[in-house]
Write a structure and sequence with these properties.
Layout: H1 3-20, E1 24-26, H2 31-49, H3 70-89, E2 93-96, H4 100-116, E3 130-133, H5 139-147, H6 150-163, E4 166-172, E5 177-182, H7 188-206, E6 215-220, H8 230-248, E7 250-257, E8 261-268, H9 271-275, H10 277-292, E9 297-299, H11 328-391, H12 418-428, H13 435-451, H14 458-491
Antiparallel strand pairs: 1-2, 3-5, 4-5, 6-8, 6-9, 7-8
Helix pairs in contact: 1-2, 1-4, 2-3, 3-4, 5-7, 6-7, 8-10, 11-13, 11-14, 12-13
């Protein structure tokens, strides 16, 4: 066998081995295309490796020493890695059920047996029998091989052999393995027979000759479906069923049992879909409920056992927890205390304002009294001088009395500022006042000074009021006291 034929045989053997072990799921009709893809990937490397191999030398041991030299071992390992990557990324592989290292192991074993085992000589025809096990062709073929009658199954296998250019020579019901003979030495003939067998067994399911395991559910509708509305409803549900077949891998069917009961059926078409059929049924039911606009109540469905708790979930505690302590009363008391503090602070501020006003009034009264005393003394001095001038021509010169020293005006005391008064008043108060009230008292004078509400100093008030008071009081007092003083002077 030349290098090209060897590459074809290797690629076919790799695909068959992986399918036989259940490690990959090949798309329908994609086995031949997958084998050709692997053949194109390995052809150049096989052509470089084959001339340096010992035809019948079989070396046991580690993979790095299997092919005799380290250089060939490295090339084979690199080729195995490339083939594994091609398998994982191929569009002809629908699903992979194992890890990368397992795929590499199977590919390496196939290449080792094919490269180091006995190989047919170049030019000999490879027309030996082909053995096909139905369990390696997928979920549908395997299930049909178990359920189909023996006569129906044999007829289907015969038709598959004729379409691939071969002949059915035997079938083992226990192993579910069919044997075919080929008329040509084309290495693709084996793959063509496998595809033909898978197609024929699928046709038995589509023709309803063999039924696959299905999941059936009955649902009660919330409203009655009239006969006139069933035509449009049938089209909409059929579109949902076709989408379930494309996306979920399940054949869906439905029918109305009476006016209010809807029967749904799902038939998985792969082993993986058979494991997930419950979730597919849930999706199917949800979409139909959206179409009907009503929830569906399930009927005649066996109860499932409750899920066991996880190990990480702790069992519920039976110890009675103490009743939660009510904290509403405490919060209300705190609110009342806060309101009382605010009221006390407001009262303190009002008292402070009243005391400041009283101090201002007292200071003004003291200033007025001092001004009045000064005015009276000035008037008395003026009157004495007038009397002396009048008595001088009629009387002898009398010894002049020592001039009376005018009384010194009362020392003006600067008015205490409001800030100082507040500070003194704060010092006299009881220390039981709260810090918040003291803070507000200390800040009150500063705020009044900033807003311009502080009282003017007493000296400024005195300077402003003195001229007006003198002008108003002096004439009146002088007019009242002058006659009395003149009469007293004449008596003297």
């Amino acid at each position: 066998m030349n290098e090209r034929n060897l590459s074809r045989r290797l690629s076919t053997s790799i695909v068959d081995a992986l399918k036989a072990h259940g490690h990959i799921l090949v798309a329908r009709g994609g086995a031949t295309a997958l084998a050709r893809e692997l053949e194109d990937k390995m052809a150049a490397d096989i052509a470089a490796i084959t001339p340096r191999l010992e035809p019948w030398a079989l070396v046991d041991g580690e993979p790095t020493t299997t092919f005799g030299t380290d250089e060939i071992d490295d090339q084979v390992e690199e080729l195995v890695a490339n083939l594994t990557s091609t398998l994982m990324e191929s569009e002809h592989v629908e699903d992979i059920f194992t890890e990368d290292n397992v795929i590499k192991r199977d590919v390496f074993r196939v290449m080792r047996d094919a490269l180091l085992g006995p190989r047919p000589e170049l030019g000999l025809e490879d027309d030996g029998p082909v053995h096909v096990r139905l369990d390696t062709l997928g979920y549908v073929a395997s299930t049909v091989g178990k359920r189909a009658p023996a006569q129906v199954l044999r007829e289907s296998l015969t038709r598959a052999a004729q379409s691939a250019g071969g002949k059915l020579t035997g079938y083992d019901p226990e192993l579910r393995e069919a044997t075919f003979s080929l008329e040509s030495s084309d290495p693709d003939a084996r793959l063509e027979i496998e595809e033909a067998v898978a197609d024929e067994l699928s046709d038995l399911v589509e023709a309803k000759v063999v039924t696959l395991p299905m999941l059936e559910r009955r649902f009660e509708l919330q409203r009655k479906i009239e006969a006139g509305a069933r035509g449009g409803l049938r089209q909409r549900i059929d579109s949902i069923a076709s989408r379930m077949l494309r996306e979920g891998g399940c054949a869906a069917s439905w029918e109305l049992a009476g006016d209010r009961v809807l029967k749904l059926k799902l038939t998985p078409l792969s082993e993986q879909d058979a494991l997930e059929v419950d979730s597919h049924m849930t999706d199917f039911k949800r979409e139909i409920a959206v179409v009907l606009g009503d929830p569906l109540d399930e009927l005649d469905v066996a109860q499932k056992p409750a899920a066991a708790p996880l190990r990480n979930d702790a069992p519920p505690s039976r110890r009675r927890e103490p009743a939660p302590v009510a904290v509403e009363e405490e919060s209300e008391d705190l609110d009342d205390e806060g309101e009382d503090e605010d009221e006390d602070e407001d009262e303190d501020e009002d008292l402070d304002g009243e005391e400041e006003e009283d101090l201002d009034d007292e200071e003004e009264d003291l200033n007025d009294e001092e001004e009045d005393l000064d005015d009276d003394e000035d008037e008395d001095l003026d009157e004495d001088e007038d009397l002396d001038e009048e008595e001088a021509p009629s009387k002898k010169a009398a010894p002049r009395e020592k001039p009376r020293k005018p009384a010194e005006p009362a020392t003006e005391q600067p008015a205490a500022s409001k800030a100082r008064a507040v500070a003194v008043r704060g010092a006299k108060k009881e220390p039981a006042k709260k810090p918040a009230a003291a803070t507000k008292k200390a800040s009150a004078p500063a705020e009044k000074a900033a807003t311009g509400k502080a009282a003017a100093p007493a000296s400024v008030k005195k300077a402003a009021k003195a001229p007006a008071k003198k002008a108003a009081k002096a004439p009146a007092k002088k007019a009242a006291k002058a006659p009395a003083k003149k009469a007293a002077a004449k008596k003297r």
